[in-house]
Amino acid sequence: MGLLKEIWILLTDMAPYLLFGFGIAGFLHIVFPRDTIYKHLSNRNIYSVIKAALFGVPLPLCSCGVIPVAAHIRKSGAGKGATLSFLISTPTSGIDSIFATYSLLGPIFAIFRPIAAFISGIVAGIFANNLPDEQNRIHEDDKFSCNICDNDEPHTHSFGEKISKMFSYGYFELVEDIAKWLVIGIITGGLISFFIPNNFIGTYLGNPLIAYPIMLAISIPMYVCATGSIPIAASLIMKGMTPGAGLIFLIGGPATNTATISFVGGKLGKKVLVIYLATITIASVVFGILLDFIWLKFAGETMFLTGKMQMLPTWLKSASVVILLVLIVKAFYAKYSNKQEVSGMGKIFSVPDMSCQHCVKTIDSALRKIDGVVDVIIDLSTKKVEVDGNVDNDTIMNAIINAGYTPEKLDD
For residue 134, what pLDDT is reported? Predict the structure, then answer.
């Protein structure tokens, strides 16, 4: 019962802020259509780098979901600087994770995290802009795109359609993308709170000289979404880990993983990869040190440091938990009830860097726009894509590549 209690506490603290953040994320999805983002990031100067960071901080994209968007931005003519700035600032933050961070870790963390993401993106982008870039802008990509439907012809939608899409994206599509990692994060946080003694964490991770390198070594290669990382960091901090080390985990975990590292090295070059990793490492440590300094300075101001402020009534927290659990259950049901398995009747491709429902929808949409495609089956568990229709292999592979992924044709 003690473990369930710890998990329930994390849920009740996060649920109201998560629901509000999902709603804001849906609003941003409508307000900032993809063509607007591409247009503003097409130049190769300091302004495009800053815009990339500004666009990236509030967008609720995880570190794998940001890859195809960054690939499209790059293909549309964005320089290495703007692309790298977007890649760093976007997965580290997100409007939903900002509210969730506030709920468990308080206003300092909620402010520090997006600021760190913003500055890190700009610094990396400036350095990357100084590298040679032979790419020319591809004008044919300057076309109309819609965040509500897949129709590429210029058109408009009614207010009701926009509201419907806002809710469906924020409370269904986005929840479906992060549900697994959110559940893993909350359960892991509960396990840490219940099983690990306070003196163990305080002894080993209360020392920044030990905690910082450990958090860097853990966070850089692993995949964890910006929201799912919060309960893990919060539980470790409550057990005695230095807050600065928690911030390092919150920055490094979502900003990097093996898939993103591979994308940066392959698409932007090894020198950009060095800038990418060095910027995240140095920035997370610098902001970690600064956070620890402020944390000690305001140690007595608990209302300033902690998110556990009784500002919300119990009934609202409990109702939010129920709604959130319903959305999570629905997300899991939708994911596994609609699971597709390749039949072997069409052309089959492996897409190893496809890792979430956002990837599935992006690839599916790109393939169905090809003339001659009859049906598309995508099995995320095996990372296989099957295309049925009178289409040659090169056309299919180019469509997947243009969507931001690296396909491999499997033998028939």
Answer: 59
By percentage, how much of the chain surpasses pLDDT 70? Answer: 87
Residue indicated by tokens 């790109």: 366
DSSP symbols for 191-208: HHHHHS-HHHHHHHHSSH
How many whole angstroms separate alpha carbon 56 and alpha carbon 61? Answer: 8
- The arithmetic mean of pLDDT across residues 118-133, rounded, is 89
For residue 345, the SS3 value is: coil
- What are the tens digits of pLDDT across the range 148-179? 776 667 778 888 888 888 888 888 888 887 78
3-state SS assignment for residue 378: strand
291: helix, strand or coil = helix
Alpha-carbon distance 7 to 195, whole Å? 12
What structural domains and CATH numbers belong to the chain? 2-322 (no CATH), 347-409 (3.30.70.100)
pLDDT in tens, 349-367: 888 877 777 778 888 888 8
- DSSP assignment of 59-95, as one string? ----TTTHHHHHHHHHHTT--HHHHHHHHHHHHH--H
Residue 86 in tokens: 């977007």
- Give the residue from 288, 178, 277 showing the smallest Cα distance to 233: 288
Is residue 268 pLDDT above 50, yes or no?
A: yes
